[in-house]
Amino acid sequence: MPEFPPELEIHGDRGTAAIFDSRGYLAFWSSTLDRPSSLPERWALYASHYHEQEATAPSQASPEPHAEQIRDFVAAVREGRPPLVDGTEARKVLVVIEALYRSAERREWVELGAGE
Question: What is the pTM for the complete model shown?
């Protein structure tokens, strides 16, 4: 049986994030329909889209920070420890990001409550 590189996929209601191979390559798909099915297709997609440059749009951002966080999550599961960034901390960031979107949409300041 051939040996395959490790892979982790996280599926959500808006798409999939997949990390594959020991170097932590990360890819996103907006739906399961446009997700490449074979490993060679995934490598080709990665090679055609990944580049090291200053990001000017979300589609050009480096996947490395996400890959690092997913690597830590995998290590945490294997080691039986909590991840460095847990859901509680991630939620705090999401609250701020959502407030930024509301502020931009309304073109005004958005106050965050003490519990947010």
Answer: 0.41
